[in-house]
Design goal:
Layout (H helix, E strand, L loop, with lengths): L1 H30 L3 H13 L2 E2 H8 L3 H13 L3 E5 L7 E5 L1 H7 L6 H10 L3 H17 L24
Antiparallel strand pairs: 1-3, 2-3
Helix pairs in contact: 3-4
Length: about 160
C-alpha cells in the first residue's frame, strides 16, 4: 500500500515538473526568455534602475547566478548596465525598449496563476499544502538547493494582469 502512495506522490511531482517545463518552453518560444529572466526584467522595469545585489536579494538567487542571467539579457539587448555616478563599484541595470515592448504584452509566469488560486484556499488548506511540500522537499534532500525565483508581495496583487 505504501509503495502505491509513494508512486502516486512521485507521479504528482513529475506532473508539476512537466507543467513548469511546458510553461517555460512557451515563454521561450513566445518571448525568447526563461521564467527567471522574465521575473528579473519585470523587477528591473518596476523599480526603474536596480543594482545586481538588489535584484539577487529580490529573486532569492546568488549574485553570481543573477550576474550570469544579466549577461545573457544584456547580450540580447534586454538591459543596459552602467556604473554608478557616486560609487563606480556599483553596477546598475535598466531595461531597454525591447524589454518594455515584451512586458507590455503581459507575459504570464506560471507562478502568478498558481498564487492566485492558492490565495483563494482557506488558511488551513494553505498550511497543509505548505507543510506537506516542505516535508517532501526534506525527504528528497532538496532543502538546500538554489531555486528559481518566486514572486513576492506586490506581485500577488496583480491578479488581473497576466504577469
Amino acid at each position: 500500500m505504501s509503495q502505491d502512495k509513494s508512486d502516486e506522490l512521485l507521479t504528482s511531482i513529475r506532473r508539476i515538473i512537466r507543467a513548469i517545463d511546458v510553461h517555460s518552453k512557451d515563454l521561450q518560444k513566445n518571448y525568447g526568455m526563461t521564467g527567471p529572466q522574465l521575473l528579473i526584467l519585470k523587477k528591473i522595469d518596476e523599480s526603474n534602475i536596480l543594482s545586481v545585489s538588489e535584484i539577487a536579494k529580490y529573486v532569492s538567487l546568488s549574485q553570481a547566478t543573477v550576474t550570469n542571467i544579466l549577461a545573457r539579457l544584456e547580450h540580447q539587448n534586454y538591459i543596459i548596465r552602467h556604473r554608478g555616478e557616486s560609487d563606480k563599484r556599483k553596477v546598475y541595470i535598466e531595461t531597454t525598449k525591447k524589454t518594455q515592448d515584451i512586458l507590455s504584452n503581459h507575459p504570464s509566469l506560471l507562478q502568478i496563476d498558481f498564487v492566485n488560486k492558492f490565495n483563494r484556499l482557506k488558511d488551513w488548506e494553505q498550511s497543509l499544502l505548505l507543510s506537506s511540500l516542505q516535508r517532501v522537499a526534506a525527504l528528497m534532500d532538496a532543502c538546500d538547493f538554489e531555486v528559481e525565483p518566486h514572486l513576492y508581495g506586490d506581485q500577488y496583487d496583480k491578479v488581473g494582469e497576466n504577469y
